[in-house]
Amino acid sequence: MTPKQNATRATRNFSQASVAVDLGAESCRVSLLRWKNGLPHMELVHRFTNGPSTAADGTLRWPLDAILAGVERGMRLCADRAPEGIQSVGVDGWAVDYVRLDAKGEPLELPFCYRDERTETAQLELHALISPDRLREITGLQLQKLNTLYQLFADKIAGKSAGTGWLNLPEYLLSYWGGERVAEFTNATHTQMMDVQSHGWSDEVLAAANIDPKTMPRIVPPGTILGSMSGHLTGLPAFRDTLLIAPACHDTASAVAGIPASGDDWGYISCGTWSLVGTPVPTAKNGFRAREQQFTNLGLDGDRFLFQKNMNGMWLMKQCLDAWSTQGKQWEVGKLCKEARTAPTPRKLLNVDDPELHRMGNMPARINAQLIAHGAKAMDETPSGAPQMASLIFHSLAARYAELFVQIEAITGKAIRRIYIVGGGSQNAFLRELITEVTGKEVYAGSAESSTVGNFALQLAALTTVGGSNRKRELATMYAAKLCGEPFKETEGGMSIAGISESLPSRLDLGL
Question: What percent of the chain has pLDDT above 70?
């Protein structure tokens, strides 16, 4: 699409609908935004479970065909609900994982899951070619074995063909429907291959990993229109004139874009399977303390960065719930959270970032192993002990959040007064109270579907301006405020298990 066509298409009014696709490691969602009497109405049209499975070769893979089928079912439901037509579609999701493509743009194989252990060896071998300190200096990124760089290097070690290139999963879906093959900025920053100063791919990193620069997709900013939808979905009247937009394709960046807060005195916790704790900054913070404490700099709309730390999240609770389920007890999450509130305050807290607690399977036993190793008593691993173990998890998460905000303030020089919690964990009133208590800051519940709000807000900004990144950022914040002021309806699929929700959010300070 030419700049002239972009300018023409960006003058649309909001009589038509938009679709936001949110890819999640636990569940994927397809949401519809419609306009009635000038007011937005968001609806979660379709949610389906997601998760990796073990392939015949023992590796952990994502079910790409099932993801596509589930998303397209949701899009067909959106088409049925929006006779006025759908003007745009945007996709966000988890970062780092990718699809390798052949000459026809078809997947060479199922994408690996970031939890696959193949990258342990790859990381060590790559660090012999380029030091961890140099990698961090160039990319500003927390060194994690799951990053795309280590995964691509693992492909090299295994002798896998580079094909014609690769795309992260959100960008792959947009390409599959007819969009240009790109790497959206917020996802590109999470690969460990982007130069944090130039905002382009690092020749030095690519050379060290023997990655052909020709296989690297073009980096584009959030809110880029990638073209018009083509293919089988255009057989539906609603999709015959639909634009494909890369919002902030990294779901955390979309979630933060969905917080309509102004000023410079706030931070966020994006609380789902993972917890992402940080604050927006105009330029990357990559000094000695940031590197020493393994903070990361991830892209955000407006050419900004999220200065944050990745840590464990509701994965701990999800794995415990799965374990108790195998013992015959299906805990209702709200009831469990309320009983955890009245459980005795734990004397010993967990190191929630212990690598053992990131592994799948039998989480109660893993928690007890850590407690015993540190001289504490083991807890009841059966469903009867669930409230006490849930209390331990929530207290431990809150304490770690507080510790990280102290570090964030010291490194950035910010005085953070407000914390916005977004994602499923925002609905857990007990956790919010614990965070307020241990941080001493004002804590507000943002949208449980903040990534969807941000996805829509960035689509709308792209449709209404041909200006630069700052103007799109201003518009996205305005649209996020408008969207947060409206109820989010859910018609199918139930509450995300990653939410671990106790109650609906009590309030949202728009900060405007």
Answer: 92
State the alpha helices, DSSP H only, in 225-344: 251-257, 288-292, 315-326, 333-342
* pTM: predicted TM-score of the whole model, two decimal places: 0.85
Q: What is the pLDDT of residue 12?
A: 53
Strands (E) located in 94-237? 98-101, 165-168, 182-184, 218-220, 224-228
The token pair that represents 48 in the structure block: 């389906």
Residues 110 and 186 sit within 8 Å (Cβ to Cβ)? no
Q: Decide if 390 contacts 340 (C-beta within 8 A).
A: yes
| C-beta separation of 277 from 267 below 8 A | yes
Three-state DSSP at 137 gives helix
DSSP type of residue 200: S
Alpha-carbon span 159 to 207, nearest angstrom: 17
Cβ neighbors of 13 (< 8 A, separation 6 or more) are none
244 DSSP 8-state letter: E
Both tokens of 307, joined, read 């200065």
Dist CA 349 CA 394 (whole Å) = 10
**Any idea what the Cα angle at residue 280 is, between residues 279 and 284, rounded to 5°?**
105
pLDDT at position 497 over 60: no
* The residue count for the chain: 512
**pLDDT over 80 at 488, yes or no:** no
Summarised one tens digit per residue, pLDDT across range 143-186 is 989 999 999 999 999 999 888 999 999 999 999 999 999 999 99
Cα–Cα distance measured from residue 171 to residue 176, given in angstroms and rounded to the nearest whole number:
9
On whether the CB atoms of residues 249 and 93 are closer than 8 A, the answer is yes
Report how far residue 492's alpha carbon sits from residue 296's, in angstroms, rounded to the nearest whole number.
36
Tell which residue, 477, 466, 8, 469, has the closest CA to residue 221.
469
Q: Are 78 and 148 in contact (CB under 8 A)?
A: no
Coil vs helix vs strand at 457: helix
Paired residues of 33 in beta bridges: 18, 42
pLDDT digits (tens, 9 = 90+) for 430-442: 999 999 999 999 9
Contact 75, 48 (CB under 8 A): no
Q: Is the pLDDT confidence value at 257 over 50?
A: yes
Phi then psi for 48, rounded to 5 degrees?
-140, 150
Please state, in angstroms and rounded to a whole number, the distance separating the CA atoms of residues 199 and 219.
8
- Does 1 score more than 60 pLDDT? no
3-state secondary structure 461-510: HHHHCCCCHHHHHHHHHHHHHHHHCCCEEECCCCCCHHHCCCCCCCCCCC
